[in-house]
Amino acid sequence: MSVSRRDFLGAGAAAAAGLALPRLAEGMPAITVRGRAEPEITPFAGRPVIISAANGYNRDSSGKRGIEVAWDMLTKGADPLDAIVSGVQIVELDPNDNSVGLGGLPNEDGVVELDASCMHGPTKRAGAVGAIQDIATPAAVARDVMIHTDHIFLVGEGAKRFAIEMGYKPQNLLTERAREYWVKWKSTLNPGDNWLDPDQIPPMKGQRPAPTGAGRPDDEEYSSNTHVWFDRNGVPHTYGTINMNAITASGDIASVTTTSGLSWKIPGRVGDSPLIGAGQYCDNEVGAAGSTGRGEANIKVCGAFLAVEFMRQGMTPQAALMKVMERVIAMTEDRLMVNGKPTFQLQYYAVNKKGEYAAACCYEGSTFAVADEKGARIEKCAYMYKASEQPAVPLSGVLRKP
Ligand code: GLY
Q1: Would the pLDDT of 99 be above 50?
Q2: Dihedral pair phi/psi, residue 144, rounded to 5°
Q3: d(CA 46, CA 252)
Q4: Is the pLDDT of residue 215 over 90?
Q5: Are the C-beta atoms of 22 and 330 separated by less than 8 Å?
Q6: Ligand 1, from 238, 256, 272: best to mutate by most atoms within 8 Å of Cβ?
Q7: Which of 173, 198, 205, 348 stands the most exposed, by the fewest C-beta atoms within 10 Å?
């Protein structure tokens, strides 16, 4: 079945009119495989699985609801990309997740700019949007770039115009809380500041001091919700992001990553999330992988693509991800290394064609969400270094205005 643009716009209007999730996903046009509505069945000896960044799973957050909704759809026969785009959309629309979609921390100018990308294994297609403003659900827009255009990657104003044409409703994504934090961040700047100044860079996740007197009473709850940490001024910083990968009972695979990216970034900065091969990658014959954390570190190794290639060579998901992490560290510039160890955190997630999955991080402490026949749950990431081995230095990459 093919869906005309007009049909789609009808579905988009219905969504804009307030259809509740996950029905929003049901309004999406079906993904077709060479003119057929049903995906091609590829040889498969595995089981359905979804693996995802945790995004506050233990706090009964949108991260938990997201993977549960995606799993429910997958087990009812949904296309794997439809299932995971619907799953991450719950996080995108959650104003309390400060790292993704609505409520994401803004750029230097106080404007929320979002990045997302996706891949659909059975049809070998991909879509992405970068630095898109005013549209809360960039993962679905990336999917629409994939379905409705001959392009893969739209950015900035063009991406927003495309989304509006497709029926998405523009809205202000800056929540009052994110605006208050932005004002506080602005107030800590000095005219002589540069973008790299270790003195003002906040501590790594896991070494986070309690918010200072400058912080809000509920900062701690806010920070536990996602990948966020507070500096000495009580200003939060994040790389944020959710990556989700799924394999169906028939062995079809898909991947999606969506983020508001690095907080207080230079306008126009895009991280790894919208880059096919970095933020996520999927090959229906092999598996899928994706990343959260410091995008600048992942971009240089094309981490998601590399993980899938390592799995193609026969490595398990965990071995592949650890090998990618080794490559990240080998490719890290000196200014970000202390005693041979990086001064940042990064996470990878992967699933292979057999339904085997793993997640890995640089420093012990990260968790991930997984759903399979045992239900949805949280598990610990494999890691390169123990938490105690973290250099006692601030996290790299936080920006200041010159
Ligand atoms: N991994 C998200 C970012 O760096 O933007």
Answers
A1: yes
A2: -70, -35
A3: 11
A4: no
A5: no
A6: 272
A7: 198
- Residue 398: band (very low, low, confident or very high) from pLDDT cuts 50, 70, 90: very low
- What Rg do the C-alpha atoms of the chain give, in angstroms? 20
Token couple for 380: 């610990």
Q: Beginning with the edge strand found earlier in the chain, give each strand of the sheet holding 382-385 in spatial order.
A: 280-283, 287-293, 346-352, 357-363, 382-385
Question: Residues 177-202, buried b or exposed e (16+ Cβ, 10 A)?
Answer: bbeebbebbeeeeeeeeeeeeeebbb
Give this prediction's pTM: 0.85
Q: Is the pLDDT of residue 23 over 90?
A: no
What does the pLDDT look like over 167-209, one tens digit per residue?
A: 999 999 999 999 999 999 998 887 767 776 544 344 444 444 3
pLDDT at 190: 76
Helix (H, G, I), strand (E, B) or coil at 48: coil
5-16 and 138-148 helices, crossing angle to 10°: 170
How many angstroms does the Cα of residue 104 sit away from the middle of ligand 1? Answer: 12
Q: Give the max Cα distance, the chain.
A: 61
Closest atom, ligand 1, to C-alpha of 265 = 5
At which residue do the structure tokens 């806010």 appear? Answer: 222
Q: How far is ligand 1, taken at its centre, from the CA of residue 261, in Å?
A: 4
Phi, psi (deg, nearest 5) at residue 300: -70, -20
**Class at the top of the CATH hierarchy for domain 5-175+235-389:** alpha beta
Q: Report the length, in residues, of the chain.
A: 402
Q: Is 241 a catalytic residue?
A: yes
Specify the range with the lowest mean pLDDT, choosing from 115-129, 213-227, 288-302, 362-376: 213-227
Kindly list the protein residues whose Cβ atom lies closer than 6 A to any atom of ligand 1: 239, 241, 259, 261-262, 271-273, 292-295
